[in-house]
Every structure is written in C-alpha cells, then in structure tokens.
Amino acid sequence: MTGSGEEIRAAYRQALYELPPARWEEQAALVAVLEGAVMLLAPAVAAAAPRMSGETRETALTVLRHADELLDEEAPRADLKARLHDLGVVARSSLTLLEQFGAPGAPKTSEGVRP
Q1: Distance, CA of 12 to CA of 34 (rounded, Å)
Q2: CA distance 106 to 113
C-alpha cells in the first residue's frame, strides 16, 4: 500500500459500498489493506486532533478509540465481513478528518497521507 488517499478510498469503498469479495482469501486481503490504512491514518489523526475543536475533535477521538479497538491483538477476527465494514468505516472517517481538518500541509488530494 502506498498510503495514497485514492488507494485508501478505493479500499473502503469496496468494503462499504460493494458486495464483499466472494472468496475468503480476497476478503482477507482487503482486510489487510484496510488494517494497513488504519495503522497509517490513526497517528495522523492523533496528531491533528489537538487542533480540532468541538464535535470535530470528539469525532476524531471516537475514531481513534475505534481504531485502537480494531487494531488490538485481542480484536475479534473471525467474522471478516464485519471486520471489513468496521475497518472501512474507520478508514473513511480518518481520511475525511485528515482531508478536512488535518495538519497544515497535509494533502487534500491523492498524494498520500502525512501527519
């Protein structure tokens, strides 16, 4: 994964808006891509959150809490469809927060995500 906004967007769109891949291997691969996206985005959201205010900051903190829960070693992983959905929601929320309220100089295009 390059970490580009477009690559992350394509992965969460597939997870949230399309039929899930039929084969287990394809679902597992998409889960891995979204896990990588969440791992990449969460630190950037954490860095940007102090500059946010009000409901936006509360949303960022909620997204970070969900990211931590999903990435925890103890997180349930048996239901790939549910995991795809949850990772897709967190990736989408994180990317949106960063594109709209990220750090100064953070890309608002498909250049890649930087804190």
Answers
A1: 7
A2: 7
